[in-house]
Design a protein that fits this description.
Rossmann fold, globular, 26 helices, Arc Repressor Mutant, subunit A, six-stranded parallel β-sheet
Length: about 725
């Protein structure tokens, strides 16, 4: 292989990284700077210049897709298969090591991997066998404790437990889980990394074998590594292997999942001296977008620092649209995409990005109304999500007791002791007597035991009570806007679904609850045709929207996805929506510097997905939980350089009193009113002429004031 051919199409920084001499290397690869090219060329370069066989190189990626792409590129460069090369994900590579060293790892030769669903079922069984309340000990909550413990590098038995009843019960459950896994030869995902790390640390001869075998260790997306992943890398490298890692601290957006951005600093300490190479030339976005992204991310204090640039043209300015509400925002997004297509683009060029999955619902409805194909990525369409289908099943059974599919879905949701055997008995009765499952349940006292009968009686009573409650609320409020939303909100709470999905420490709990709140919002806005009842019409629309109108994988469809799901992708037209305080940045992240900086990195990631045109939007009003809320523009919008932005539509984002980040009037600031005296700003709603400010006055009590009329004076 001609080594110089590997360098011909690289820029100076890429070439420096690929040809770096022996020693630890940290490549800070900015968005769109060619990091995958650098990784594959580095592998090919060291194999060629050091005359190394593939089996002496180990490369770690975060996804199987990335591993396959890297292997494919490398084989094209080498002109031959790279079979012996160790390339894969953290879990894949640690699994491979454990299979080789089962005895040393104290595992049976035929050990099996326990996936998340099987783990949840096992934990539910253990909780039942120990006689604990499953509602108090949800399987997902326990699984999260296991995950967090092992991902921080600790065995379950090393957890310190006090004498409080909760701690004692948790210790019993975890001990039973460990014993069951050991007896059955089961290893969960976190255990793969933990056990392999302990193996390398406790068996020096095995560690020395791999430190002699692997000449080079390369890691992709290093900023996303968690504690145990870093510990495994350090144990594998020892004092022999100097790692070559590629990452971008400005794109670290998975702190909520355990990623530790401080691993970048740990690397520089543990493997000092570390050569740092910055890839700053961007091959994706225009100069205007990069300048805005650089200005934004510069607000973060904990970063190593780099500035993206492009040799290309400045490009079009960033468009900013201030919508009156979320429906206006969706209508503008669709109109902007239609204009793009009219000017020669295509639907598949466009992506709509949002902070929370629940935001997709209004966009989906608008696309359907306009007949534009779309596809939701990184999640199900709104009406296909489990928590939405569960709620709709309750509503369907409340409306029509003969709905067997709805009955089967919710008869034991939340869990109420109605198991598979009971359900099969009901099915047999229904078949024999040609009746519905509901009718079979009503008659079940002749064929079932006392416990099953009691559980079914409770379910029947619940549905009757829900039916009466929903009917009463719809009757009391008539056709008043929001009536259907109020009825569904009652049903979600009274059915126990709200409590069922409000699981502590469950990573999906917040998203599920947001989706349920969005369902209430959808129902509150819904207007039924005169000849149909609101509930019947709403259920019909939900069924239609959950049909097959979504475009296929290869069709000319607009993409909808969360900002997290968009990482690593790129699109000609990017629309980032919902840029409002409390939504983006998210309310849970606003109060901590660390959380706020991660939210800013997430916005940076979204901006740098853009190849041609970036459109930003926020809504002055947004319907949440069935109620209209005044929204404030995201502070991130005012961190962008004004010269990079052109504002579309009749509304304008203005600096000064109308902005929550204004130095003049902001939350917590002391102000003076000509009549009420001095006070402290507690809250703000709306913006511009609609901005209202809540002030706690020392002598005048707490008052809401219209900012444009109040003439509040900030006190230094």
């Amino acid at each position: 292989m001609d080594c110089e051919l590997l360098l011909d199409d690289l820029n100076d920084a890429q070439r420096e990284a690929v040809t770096a001499p022996d020693g630890a290397v940290l490549v800070l690869a900015g968005a769109g700077s060619g990091k995958t090219r650098v990784l594959t060329r580095r592998i090919a370069w060291v194999m060629a210049t050091d005359d190394l066989p593939p089996e002496r190189v180990l490369a770690v990626t975060f996804t199987n897709k990335a591993a396959a792409e890297m292997r494919s590129r490398l084989e094209r460069l080498l002109g031959r298969p790279a079979g012996p090369l160790w390339i894969g994900t953290f879990h894949g590579l640690t699994h491979r090591l454990l299979r080789i060293h089962t005895e040393a790892a104290r595992l049976p030769a035929g050990f099996q991997i326990l996936d998340s669903d099987d783990q949840a079922r096992l934990l539910r069984r253990i909780v039942r066998e120990l006689g604990y309340d499953e509602k108090r000990w949800p399987a997902r909550q326990i699984a999260n404790i296991i995950y967090r413990t092992k991902d921080e590098g600790h065995k379950l038995g090393e957890l310190e437990h006090g004498n409080a009843p909760y701690e004692r019960d948790l210790a019993h459950i975890l001990a039973a889980y460990e014993k069951t896994c050991e007896r059955a030869g089961l290893v969960d995902f976190s255990e793969l990394l933990l056990r392999t790390t302990r193996l390398l640390l406790e068996q020096p001869d095995i560690a020395a074998h791999y430190q002699a075998r692997f000449r080079h260790l390369l890691v992709d997306e290093f900023q996303d590594t968690n504690t145990i992943q870093y510990l495994w890398l350090r144990a594998l490298a020892g004092k022999t292997i100097q790692p070559f890692v590629v990452g971008d601290d400005d794109q670290s957006i998975y702190g909520w999942r355990g990623a530790r951005i401080e691993n970048v600093q740990r690397l520089q300490h543990d493997f000092a001296p570390v050569r740092v190479v910055r890839l700053e030339q961007n091959y994706r976005s225009s100069g205007n977008i990069l300048n805005a992204a650089n200005a934004l991310i510069a607000k973060n204090s904990e970063r190593l620092g780099k500035t993206l640039w492009t040799a290309g043209a400045p490009g079009a300015p960033i468009e900013l649209y201030a919508a009156s509400d979320d429906r206006d925002e969706a209508a503008h997004a669709v109109a902007r995409i239609e204009r793009w297509v009219h000017e020669g683009g295509s639907n598949e060029d466009a992506v709509i990005l949002y902070r929370a999955n629940a935001q997709s619902r209004v966009f989906e409805e608008t696309f359907m109304a306009r007949g534009i194909p779309y596809r939701v990525y990184g999640g199900l369409r709104f009406f296909e999500r489990a928590e939405i289908k569960d709620t709709l099943a309750y509503l369907r059974l409340v409306t029509r007791r003969e709905d067997d599919a709805a009955f089967e879905r919710i008869v034991n949701l939340p869990a109420r002791g109605i198991g598979a055997r009971t359900l099969e008995t009901l099915r047999a009765t229904a078949r024999q007597e040609n009746i519905s499952l509901w009718q079979a349940a009503v008659r079940a006292n002749t064929v079932l035991g006392t416990r099953a009968n009691h559980a079914l009686a409770g379910f029947i009573e619940l549905i009757e009570r829900l039916s009466a409650g929903v009917t009463s609320r719809l009757a009391d409020t008539g056709a008043t806007p929001g009536a259907l939303g109020e009825a569904i909100e009652y049903m979600i709470t009274a059915s126990g679904l709200d409590a069922h999905y409000r699981r502590p420490d469950d990573e999906q709990a917040e998203s599920r609850l947001e989706n349920l709140a969005e369902l209430v919002s959808a129902a509150s806005e819904f207007i039924a045709e005169p000849e149909l009842s609101p509930l019947t019409a709403f259920l019909a629309q939900a069924a239609l929207e959950a049909g097959d109108t979504q475009a296929g994988d290869e069709s000319n469809a607009v993409k909808l996805m969360t900002l997290h799901a968009a990482k690593g992708l790129e699109f000609p037209l990017v629309l980032i929506t919902g840029l409002e305080e409390g939504l983006f940045p998210h309310q849970k992240s606003i109060d901590t510097p660390r959380g706020l900086e991660e939210e800013r990195r997430l916005f940076y990631v979204g901006m740098t997905r853009t190849r041609a045109q970036l459109v930003l939007s926020y809504a002055e009003q947004r319907r949440l939980h069935g109620q209209l809320h005044y929204a404030r523009p995201s502070r991130f919008l005012l961190e962008l350089p004004p010269e990079a932005i052109t504002q579309a539509g009749p509304r304008r984002l203005s600096p000064g009193v109308s902005n929550p980040a204004s130095p003049a009037i902001r939350l917590g600031r002391r102000v003076r009113h000509r009549s009420f005296g001095e006070g402290v700003v507690l809250e703000q709603q709306g913006n511009g002429a609609h901005l209202r400010i809540k002030v706690a006055f020392e002598n005048g009590g707490t008052k809401w004031l219209v900012a444009a009329l109040a003439r509040l004076e900030p006190i230094a």
